[in-house]
Amino acid sequence: MPLDTSTYNLALLRVDGRRWNELRQQGNTKIQCIITGPNERDASKNTSSSASTAPTAGGAGATLAVSIMIAPFATVDRKRRGRNDKRVQEMQTTIACGLAAAVQGQAYGPRSTIHIALNVLSQDGSLLAGLINAASLALVDAGVPMTDYLVACTAGSTSSYAAADEAADPLLDLNTQEEQELPFLTLATLGATDKVVAMVCESRVQLTRLEGMMATAADGCKAARDFLDGVVRDKGELMVQEGAIGRGEVVSSMDLD
Amino acid sequence: MPREAEPSQNEKDFILKAVREGHRLDGRALDQFRQLDLKFGDQYGIADVTLGKTRILTKVTAEVTVPYTDRPFDGIFTITTELSPMASPAFEVNRPTETEVLLSRLLEKTVRRSNALDTESLCLVAGQKCWSIRVDLHVLSHDGNLIDASCLAVVAALRHFRKPDTSMEGDTLTVYTPAEREPVPLSWLHSPFCITFSFFGTISIGEDGEEKDIWLLDTTLLEEQLRVSSCTISMNKHGEICQVAKPGGAPVEAVTVLQCSSLALQKVKDLSDFVDQKLAEDSKHRNKGGLLAELSAENAR
Amino acid sequence: MFLRVICSPQLPASSSQIGRKNLIWVESNGGRYIPAVGDLVIGTVHHSAADFFYVTLSDYTSNATLPQLAFEMASKKNRPQLHSGDLVYARVSLANRHMDPELECVSPSTGKAEGLGPLSEGMLYSISLGMARRLLMRKSAEEGKVVVLDELGSAGLAFETAVGRNGKMWVNSKDMKTVLVVGRAVTETDEKSLAVEQQKKLVRKLVKEMA
Q1: Subunits that touch chain C (at least 3 Cβ pairs < 8 angstroms)?
Q2: Contact yes or no for B255/B237 (Cβ under 8 A)
Q3: I need a labelling partner for B75 at 20 to 30 A (CA). Which of A108, B298, C25, C191 fits?
Q4: How sure is the predictor about A246, in pLDDT bands with cuts at 50, 70 and 90?
Q5: Does residue B292 contact residue B184 with C-beta atoms inside 8 Å?
Q6: How many Å apart are CA C87 and CA C83, to the nearest integer?
Q7: DSSP structure string for A77-99
């Protein structure tokens, strides 16, 4: 029986004109995440080969299956993407393996699968980071046990790779325009620690620039974690007010972290 | 779906224990590569790389085609990978496994997106004719560290490759056979190499219980099956990172990633020198008696 | 690749071997393992079902079955608990061309294990089929021309081994370094087809490195 089916809208936010270290308050990346399961692992796994899977807890726990759908209207050029786009498949794998590090899969049997379906409704930079945050938040909301939030953030560097000037400033949370112009990386950490779960950098950048970018991204991750935590706590409060859960129950579960 | 045979529990326990104490099955140091060998074919653009028991064959071909309409001034450059069932029971024909998708994406990011090959130089007539360079990569034997070996093979093959010389006179484009004019090398901008670090959890060092990540370079297949996460760093010898990918897995301290990246630079310089040396040897071998010098002198316009 | 012609009888004698005495075996070093009755093999338990363990002997082949009661002193109430990934040393009891092979860990005539059964700890190495065969010979030094194990033993290393005809060798010792040295010595002998003198030299080198 499905544990919970929940829907979340996550808008990663910011109108430009912000300072280098400001997260967007209302950006144009919009992602919807739906968690289904855990279900019994279906024998016809091969038919849904568009999803990427990763076992949790060294194969002894539930499997995470991540599938990403990018809506054709999500980008400016409105190009339809094939299901087997390797870039999307790579992102799926990164998300599945990344979340597998945080999810306590042994709470479920080894033959169960949690499906994470991500729909990208609007795309404006930091796509992978947004997807990871959305999936993480949705898993928390669905009540899947996790060690901590898996949070992600992008960081870039002003001036392109060719210029070896040391004065280049790091930037946090890039939008599409910035992503096309500047070198950037996506960093996913486990909660507020400095532990790197996933890191993806696809542009040419000087090695010396890496440290600054990673530090900036790690700060962004901390901010993102606080933000996600705030969202979860607000929702918890709301549920208590509405009487969906008894007060004591919430307090005990919230005290855990 | 056929699966790779899982290593037995005994193997898992033993290897993890050995790695924690700093030993590897083949007696290598933790950051040591296996015996690396690179052979070029009789034709231009064939490279055969062996790294321990891993063997990879790449072939580069070129043909004249029509450029993409949205990129009229660029040539076409594609890398295709094929992991045949011969190399491992986990691979199937016509169904790309996750390994294959990640491998081809990494090569794409490392070699293509980093502009190692100047695609503008492949343009012959803007919007009408251009060269299409295609790299075919075949994994003949899989014993771990496919990524590093494949990247080396692709770079070596492309640098070894010579495309037929061409000339434009008015509206006519002439492509010369190797007999008419000596083929010309591709316009190559920089040589990126991948270095993959495999992580095996942490050990505590010292009495204050400080945790230290354990990592290995150039893992064999068995070691690869047991790692908890991996991180591939692509770089050229000038210290420019072309791509970093750590696709999930167990978390690793940020400091470790930075340490790995500086070590990667050192290893990339070694690999770069290795390829340079092999290319020099090959051209010397081909240029016996100074025949090439004679031909190219005649053709200089 | 090298070919060997081996005259019988070198197989471990058992009741099922009668009638194979005057055969000539042509063995190559490559190819995959094809089970034959009486072969000693090392398998990895894949999973267990009601009455059988399914055991992987080699890549690209289907699993062999090992009845849960084919162990020494096994009964319905007292049977060995093997889990996925455990190693087991067994004898092939049934090998038909188009059927999955069947294994046993007990001698059907005496009811004793005779050294067969689960292998705990240690390390499993893959060796070529030819090497496995040479190691399993009665007089492996004279006929098989492998002296590495004898040399390692006389160099003062204490270890135990089990060789499977499916190209596997299991090595165990109290000292981890000993296992590593034994493994390297055998695999290197195998891969480089070392002669007797070279094997002795290799062992001396490895033992020196270890100390």
Answers
A1: B
A2: no
A3: B298
A4: low
A5: no
A6: 9
A7: S-PPPPTT-HHHHHHHHHHHHHH
Neighbours of C87 (CB within 10 A): 25
CB contact under 8 A, B101 and A93: yes
Domains of chain B, residue spans:
35-299
- Contact by Cβ (8 Å): C49, C100: no
Distance, in angstroms, between A184 CA and closest chain B CA?
10
Q: What is the pTM of this model?
A: 0.84
B102 close to A93: Cβ distance less than 8 angstroms? yes
Which alpha helices (DSSP H) does B165-290 contain, by range?
A: 221-226, 254-286
What is the fold of A6-254? Answer: Ribosomal Protein S5; domain 2 (3.30.230)
pLDDT at C173 (0 to 100): 92
pLDDT 10s digits, B204-229? 776 666 778 888 999 999 898 888 88
How would you class A79 by CB atoms within 10 Å of its CB: exposed for 0-12, middle for 13-18, buried for 19 or more? exposed
Give A101's DSSP letter. T
B35-299: which CATH architecture? 2-Layer Sandwich (3.30)
Mutate to test the interface with A, among B4, B98, B252 (most CBs of A within 10 A): B98
Phi/psi for A87 (5° steps) reads -65, -40
- The tokens for B208 are 């204050």
Residue B101: list chain A partners with CB under 8 A: 86, 89-90, 93
Place of tokens 């070392």: C194
Predicted-complex ipTM score: 0.83
Residue B153 to residue B79: CA distance in whole angstroms: 12
Percent with pLDDT over 90 in chain A: 1
- Domains of chain C in sequence order: 40-119 (2.40.50.140), 123-210 (3.30.1370.10)
Chain A contacts in chain B segment 239-258 (CB below 8 A): 239-255, 257-258
